[in-house]
Design a protein that fits this description.
The chain is of the alpha+beta class and 134 residues long. Helices cover 34% and strands 27% of the residues. The protein folds into two domains: 30 residues, no CATH class; 99 residues, Alpha-Beta Plaits. It is elongated, with a radius of gyration of 19 Å.
Length: 134
């Protein structure tokens, strides 16, 4: 890319790239959310697939887009719990994946239902963050 081409691109796309402009436009036109869920590693692929099939992780002409990091989930099942892993009263550590993806407002309720229906935990940890146009 020549310097003059880069300079013209900056005039046309003041945010720096066509992709950033695209994200800015969809945030204005369509309310978007970042959804984060943790799941045991053994169920990560199944959950990612279900999320994508329900409309989560769609960016332009791409579907099933997500980002995953691995970590350790910790919990202590209390009386009345029905843990999928471990036993009541015994602290647990589970290798988990943190799955992050974008979701539009029209798909959000369906995607959250699909997460709960396909997640092995009785009480899955799900975070939903509204994205603001900048």
């Amino acid at each position: 890319m020549t310097l003059s081409h880069r300079a013209r691109q900056c005039e046309i796309f003041p945010l720096g790239s066509p992709f950033l402009v695209y994200l800015y436009i969809i945030a204005i036109v369509e309310k978007m959310f970042k959804v984060v869920v943790t799941v045991p590693e053994t169920h990560g692929n199944k959950l990612r697939s279900a999320i994508g099939n329900a409309g989560g992780g769609k960016i332009g002409n791409y579907s099933h887009c997500s980002f995953t990091t691995k970590g350790t989930g910790r919990f202590l099942p209390q009386d009345g719990a029905r843990p999928a892993i471990g036993r009541v009263g015994v602290p647990q550590e589970v290798l988990e994946e943190r799955i992050e993806f974008l979701c539009n407002e029209n798909s959000l309720k369906r995607v959250l239902r699909v997460i709960r229906d396909n997640h092995p935990y009785e009480e899955p940890s799900i975070d939903v963050y509204p994205l603001l146009a900048q």
